[in-house]
């Protein structure tokens, strides 16, 4: 079902969830309990059925977690699902044992078990957390939430708010489309695209913002696979001030792109109500209505500093690691190694549900892409030799990459997830200063489960 047809079925904006109501936003407390459970939520209009989901704390998105920069974040995770799960803290330069990757950095948390996550948050910015066991299914069913690390003097309010965006695939009775879960067609093409867009768990919500002053919107793409593009109705501009959590030189633009797992913080200044449009489909979809309200008097939102957390390293002595990305529909992968055996793509697909490879090897949570010495400067030299875009994510550290996504000439940006076009070649540069076993994978979650991933070992 096309999203546009589907959207036409229901009308109006519905009541806001807690995240849309600034007065209810919890301020930094840094100690939380997250219970994963099945629960239902109204993703559509008030007269439509509720959707059965897997949620943290019974809400979609999961609770907004905040902590102040340099503090410890403590989260007691209780798995009350009937499937194993773990939590990954996306974009956090975490210690390896708290990274939440099952079988690589911790055992799976079994149904009924608890696990306590405890780690320091080094960088202020916009992050998110999500399930990492069978993420392609668990994230699609709702297991994710926002994580915001605040500067000492910063607070979340109507001039500094969080927008978690998802693209659900629902049936006509508003339930998660389980029949297509695991579809090899999705896995070999663009991933699981949805037909129902929500912001903070609501369809086309009204979002109250401060009026006539710069407001910071922290956008998080929590979709499995949809590359979202946004613009504002009329000719209003976004000023991008942070990318994947890290502040940047501000760039003014009327259109922004967020690949799965990416974040952008943008400043907007509005006098009257304006629709936020998601334009990746054939027709623009109203994602939300931004409603400036003079009654909300908030201090002007604090802007991040116009420079990144740290500087781009010198690459003179860098170790170059080539990563050849292949596979998928209409690709050139004829065979690849899987569990030590060279298998044809047909056999990989039909017998094992595998379709993608890095350097001729079908990836999982174990296959090693590279071993790197601690503090070595690294260039991951990627070649996307496939017919599809990929949102490439490195755990445990950010990397520098040249991107022309916001400007006509490419500029350097610090990211943890980078969208590569088909046939693109790009260098991801970082200093391997975080020891451990770090997953490197496509964040189109269907591509990852079907082989597009591997491990980079540091130290
Ligand atoms: Cu959002 Cu393996 O990550
Ligand atoms: Cu991909």
What is the gist of this entry?
The chain has 459 residues and is mostly beta strands.
Overall residue-averaged pLDDT value: 93
Low-pLDDT stretches are 1-18, 21-28
Bound molecule kinds, no repeats? CU-O-CU linkage, copper (II) ion
In the sheet with the most strands, the strands line up as 10-9-12-17-14-15
Largest sheet: 6 strands, mixed
Number of strands: 32
Radius of gyration: 21 Å
The shape is globular
Distance between the termini: 48 Å
Tell me about this structure.
- The protein is 6% helix and 42% strand.
- The chain is built from 5 helices and 32 strands.
- It has helices spanning 3-9, 135-138, 184-188, 345-352, 445-449, and strands spanning 31-41, 51-56, 65-68, 72-79, 87-90, 114-120, 125-131, 144-150, 160-168, 196-199, 206-210, 215-221, 228-232, 238-243, 246-253, 256-258, 263-268, 274-278, 285-293, 319-327, 335-338, 341-344, 356-358, 368-372, 377-384, 390-394, 399-403, 411-415, 417-420, 425-431, 436-442, 453-458.
- A 6-stranded mixed β-sheet has the order 10-9-12-17-14-15.
- The protein is globular.
- The chain binds CU-O-CU linkage (C2O) and copper (II) ion (CU).
- CU-O-CU linkage (C2O) binds at residues 88, 90, 130, 132, 261, 393, 395, 439, 441, 443.
């Amino acid at each position: 079902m096309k999203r546009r047809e589907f959207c036409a079925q229901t009308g109006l904006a519905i009541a806001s969830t807690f995240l849309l109501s600034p007065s209810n936003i919890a301020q930094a407390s840094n100690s939380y309990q997250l219970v994963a459970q099945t629960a239902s939520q109204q993703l559509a209009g008030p007269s439509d059925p509720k959707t059965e989901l897997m949620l943290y704390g019974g809400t979609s998105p999961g609770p907004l977690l905040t902590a102040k920069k340099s503090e410890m974040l403590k989260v007691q995770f209780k798995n009350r699902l009937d499937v194993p799960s773990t939590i990954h803290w996306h974009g956090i330069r975490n210690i390896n044992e708290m990274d939440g990757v099952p079988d690589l950095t911790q055992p799976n948390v079994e149904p009924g078990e608890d696990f306590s996550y405890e780690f320091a948050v080094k960088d202020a910015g916009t992050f998110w957390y999500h399930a990492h066991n069978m993420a392609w299914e668990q994230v699609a069913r709702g297991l994710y939430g926002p994580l915001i690390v605040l500067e000492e003097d910063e607070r979340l309010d109507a001039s500094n708010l969080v927008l978690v965006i998802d693209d659900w695939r629902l049936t006509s009775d508003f339930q998660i489309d389980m029949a297509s879960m695991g579809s090899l067609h999705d896995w070999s093409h663009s991933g699981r695209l949805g037909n129902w867009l929500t912001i903070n768990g609501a369809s086309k919500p009204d979002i109250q913002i401060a009026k006539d002053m710069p407001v910071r919107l922290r956008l998080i793409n929590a979709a499995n696979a949809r590359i979202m593009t946004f613009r504002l109705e009329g000719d209003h501009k976004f000023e991008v001030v942070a990318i994947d959590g890290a502040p940047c030189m501000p760039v003014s633009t009327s259109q922004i792109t967020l690949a799965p797992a990416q974040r952008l913080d943008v400043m907007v200044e509005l006098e009257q109500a304006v629709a936020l449009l998601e334009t990746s489909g054939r027709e623009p979809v109203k994602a939300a209505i931004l409603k400036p309200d003079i009654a909300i008097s908030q201090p002007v939102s604090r802007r991040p500093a116009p420079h990144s957390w740290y500087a781009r390293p010198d690459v003179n002595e860098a170790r170059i690691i080539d990563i050849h990305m292949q596979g998928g529909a209409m690709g050139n992968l004829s065979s690849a190694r899987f569990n030590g055996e060279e298998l044809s793509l047909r056999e990989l697909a039909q017998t094992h549900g595998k379709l993608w490879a890095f350097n001729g090897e079908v990836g999982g949570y174990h296959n090693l892409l590279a071993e790197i010495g601690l503090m070595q400067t690294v260039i991951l030299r990627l070649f996307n030799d496939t017919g599809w875009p990929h949102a490439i994510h490195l755990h445990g550290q950010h990397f520098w990459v040249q991107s022309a996504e916001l400007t006509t000439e490419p500029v350097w940006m610090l990211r943890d997830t980078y969208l590569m076009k088909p046939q693109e070649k790009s260098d991801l540069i970082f200093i391997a200063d975080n020891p451990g076993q770090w997953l490197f994978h496509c964040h189109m979650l269907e591509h990852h489960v079907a082989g597009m991933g591997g491990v980079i070992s540091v130290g």
